[in-house]
């Protein structure tokens, strides 16, 4: 078997909602690397939000961030897309007209206004994990360094369809459910960043494997030589995959890599 590149989503794939990574997952990733294959994070989180020691200490061969807007190798950004400041302002002003509550996501910081996420689980989680690197939108108006947005779209106030009519050419709208949508600059997906990795390491896309669980994993599951969905994942991810492994806490990664012949 030739060298393979394996791409792992984080949330719901590598770890659970409380950021616990099964020991079998770490063992499996180290095993595939010992066998000469490459392991990459491929996440919707931007680099500012990929920081926990238990994740980074696994020792991935690279980090693909922000739904394809950044590739980091050996601690260096090989590729990074920043939304131009003027267009970022236009974007925030537009989505707020339709009652979106945004989190602006960048390479070094995330930005939100606390009143948008008062007592919200996600807002609390961001404060706990980001600390001083979580900034307010208003206090840094127009000076944000960002590559994508995640938005609460409370119903029935938020009108996602009407907003998409205006911004749909500039952003891919990825709805996780009626009240959560990601806005990713057009031309960037978890699949496009896989192509950059393949070019850098001289690997054919047919020699890639993608493992994910959610809506923003669909492109990479379709694009990879083999797409694997977590048994605990969404119905959409399972439908897009070539096969479905067991759940995250049922040695899902270990079983997926064994079935793929990598360990």
Main features:
14 strands; alpha/beta; eight-stranded mixed β-sheet; 23% strand; 263 residues; globular; six-stranded mixed β-sheet
Helix percent band = 25-40%
Q: What is the terminal separation in angstroms?
A: 11 Å
Number of helices: 9
The helix/strand order is EHEHEEEHEEHEEHEEHEHEHEH
Spans of at least 5 consecutive residues whose pLDDT stays below 50 are: none
Largest sheet: 8 strands, mixed
Tell me what the structure shows.
With about 260 residues, this protein is an alpha/beta fold. Helix content is about 30%, strand content about 25%. The protein has 9 helices and 14 strands. It has an 8-stranded mixed β-sheet with strand order 5-4-3-2-1-12-13-14. The model has no long low-confidence stretch (mean pLDDT about 95).
Put the structure in a nutshell:
The chain is 30% helix and 23% strand. It has helices at 23-34, 53-56, 85-97, 121-130, 160-167, 190-201, 218-223, 235-240, 252-259; strands spanning 5-8, 38-42, 62-65, 70-73, 76-80, 101-105, 110-111, 134-135, 148-152, 171-177, 180-185, 208-212, 226-229, 243-244.
Topology:
Layout: E1 5-8, H1 23-34, E2 38-42, H2 53-56, E3 62-65, E4 70-73, E5 76-80, H3 85-97, E6 101-105, E7 110-111, H4 121-130, E8 134-135, E9 148-152, H5 160-167, E10 171-177, E11 180-185, H6 190-201, E12 208-212, H7 218-223, E13 226-229, H8 235-240, E14 243-244, H9 252-259
Helix pairs in contact: 1-9
């Amino acid at each position: 078997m030739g060298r393979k590149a394996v791409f792992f989503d984080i949330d719901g794939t590598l770890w659970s909602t409380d950021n616990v990574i099964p020991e079998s997952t770490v063992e499996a990733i180290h095993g595939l690397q010992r066998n000469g294959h490459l392991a990459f994070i491929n996440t919707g989180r931007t680099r500012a939000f990929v920081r926990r020691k238990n994740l980074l200490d696994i020792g991935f061969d690279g980090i693909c961030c922000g739904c394809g807007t950044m590739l980091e190798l050996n601690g260096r950004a090989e590729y990074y897309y920043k939304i131009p400041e003027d267009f970022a302002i236009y974007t925030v002003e537009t989505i707020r007209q339709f009652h979106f509550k945004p989190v602006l996501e960048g390479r070094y910081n995330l930005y939100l206004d606390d009143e948008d996420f008062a007592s919200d689980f996600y807002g609390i989680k961001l404060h706990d994990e980001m600390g001083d690197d979580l900034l307010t939108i208003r206090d840094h108006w127009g000076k944000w360094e960002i590559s994508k947005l995640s938005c609460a779209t409370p119903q029935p106030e938020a009108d996602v369809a009407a907003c998409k009519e205006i911004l749909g050419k500039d952003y891919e709208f990825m709805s996780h459910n009626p009240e959560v949508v990601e806005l990713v600059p057009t031309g960037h997906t978890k699949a496009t960043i896989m192509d950059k990795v393949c070019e850098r390491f001289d690997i054919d896309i047919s020699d890639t494997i993608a493992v994910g669980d959610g809506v923003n994993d669909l492109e990479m599951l379709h694009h990879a030589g083999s797409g694997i969905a977590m048994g605990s994942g969404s119905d959409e991810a399972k439908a897009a995959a070539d096969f479905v492994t067991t759940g995250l806490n049922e040695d899902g990664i270990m079983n997926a890599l064994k079935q793929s012949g990598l360990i």
